[in-house]
Here is the input.
Amino acid sequence: MSVQQVHEQKETIEVDVLLPGHDPRTTTSLFRRSRAQLLERDGARCFISNKTAEELGAPLEAHHHPIERCYAEIIDWPKFAADCKRGLWGPHAAAFDWLSFLAAKPFDPYRFVDDMTVNGVLLGKQFHTAKDAGIHMLPYPIWIAQKYAREGYQFSPTEVIHHDPEHL
Here is the structure.
């Protein structure tokens, strides 16, 4: 089979990274409050499929993005803030109060990390944690292709791309 034809790519991915020590995960009041604000602000649609919870048949999930919660303690925050201020991670992260965040004593990285209005993306469960579709399961270049693939494309053996054309 040639690469010019549709062909299946199967990969066995083994990841070997050291996660920093961190407190057990808790759902903070900031996460709960900002998740609700994210749902209101973004029209409560999945980032990948553009579908609502009702259309997906399950609640939308808030994914920490771009900074995963378990990495909060190892981030070079001034370096990350510089990228955010330049707009690399969108207008909401650019508008975050970086001055008071970086100057806070004691420093609390979760003030940014758990604020879903600046560090969150709404996803249907499939695009969050499912095999062959979720951000926690696929390399980013493969995961993001689901958002931009043509309507009707057979993405995997179990997924055909279907976007909500009214809300693209």
Remarks:
- The two ends are 35 Å apart (CA to CA).
